[in-house]
Amino acid sequence: MDVEFLRHKYEDRHDGVITKAKFKLGVRHIQVVYMFVCSFAMGALRSSNSIAILSVAQQSRNNGSYLQNHNWDKRIQGTVLSSFLVGYASAMLPAELYLKEVDDKFIMAAVLLINGGLTAAMPTIVKKGGWIAVSNGEFLMGITQACLSPVNLNLISKWLPPSERSLCGFLIQGAIILGTIIALPVSGIISESRLGWELIFYSQAMMTLSTATLWVLLTSSTPETHHAIGDTEKEYIRRSLSCYRQNKLHKPWRNILQTKQFWAIASAHTAANVLYVFFLVELSSFLVSMDLSIKNSGTQTALPFVGMWVVYLLTSPTIELIYGIGNVNYLFDVKYFRKIVNGFGSLGIVIGLLTLPYLVPSWNHLGLITLVGTFSLLGIQYSGFLENHKDMTQNYSNTLLVLSNIVSSAVAALVPVLTAAIVNVDEGDLNRWKIIFRLLAGFYVICNVVYTLCANSDRQEWDRSAKTKFGYCNALTNLELDEINQTTRLDCQREDDTSV
């Protein structure tokens, strides 16, 4: 591994080193691939749930299937789907606080095995236990899947040098969206087979349990315990991490929760998460109510997620580049930049939500384009409020993101229940769906007005009270720095002598 250690002066006046290395593939990148596959499997499992539950209640549409129609009305479907979201929201904070004390490989394996086992047993649970037993199973799956992101972050911090974390973390997180995009249309196609909704559960269980087997056999929690990694790569990772360790800072929970700027971000996050959950678990029901097949509804439900992902990939780096170079100062105060980006995305979403129900009577390419365009604007909005955490604090940005995610997930868990209460037994009544879309638009307006009025990009005082400006510092003394530089020079001389 070609590594060059350079003397560096950090802003907090601590001497340290930074490393320059040629990007070479190693065992650590294979570990990232397995983390990507695990995230993909969990994303696919989440999204296929809505199609499977809808198929359980709508199986009478498929005349070629031998499966029994369980006649679950909309309220039962809403309760089952909400159970997963409630479990997910309730476990996020404990997972963030306590999972660092447990072996990461064990946690990931447990998440995969529990979700795979419950999914494999779900057809039997549906037949023998009814919707109450299914709700309990979904609740348990939600609790375990809340552990996915904290475990991935812990593994990234142990396996990857700082220079590689951003890109690999982005890819691993994007695998969840990719799993959603692929699983929705595939589940719709499977639902029209003779095995119907049972095959959806069995196929997801097979994929998840296969992933668990690969994870248990071929991965490790740390480079030191991996049997296949070479000594050179292990030493490179060790030296990189020794120069970049995270400070154990006391988290000012009370100050964060008393900050109105945090609640402004949480309100925008809540609106976005409510929209995300509605499109994920309720959009297929809305499309089926327009006499579309489950197969076609699954495909059309996936397209908005494709649009949102593409828009976010294009706009996020562009907006960060503009924000970083400071050219926006010539147009307006930079502290309003996030609000303008967020406002542009939310305005388009509100217009789209109010327009969509009126396109139903003649649902065609225009309706589908409006559907995709509305949700795609969420990618622009993510580039606004989701980056505001980093502006407010340089030490606790991840803590703010977790807290706002908990608030937004708790509110979003009510979406299936409230939708079911409004639609009730008449899913084909367009007027009831119009009420839902209007409520979504109104809620979106209120939350984003709160964000626009109360949010800002100023660094908070409770963040300045930390002893160091940044949440990371080097762990090397000047003597150790000199030894590293001297050792590096000697190694280079030996390589030159050998080549001669």
From TrEMBL:
Listed Pfam families? MFS_1
User: Which terms in the GO cellular component ontology are assigned?
Assistant: membrane
Q: Per UniProt, what is the membrane topology?
A: Multi-pass membrane protein
Say which domain of life the source belongs to: Eukaryota
Coarsely, its chief localization is: membrane
Q: Which UniProt keywords apply?
A: Membrane, Transmembrane, Transmembrane helix
* GO biological process, any: monoatomic anion transport
Q: Which InterPro entries match?
A: MFS, MFS_dom, MFS_Na/Anion_cotransporter, MFS_trans_sf
Tell me the GO molecular function terms.
transmembrane transporter activity
Compartments reported by the entry: Membrane
This protein's name: Inorganic phosphate cotransporter
Species:
Danaus plexippus plexippus
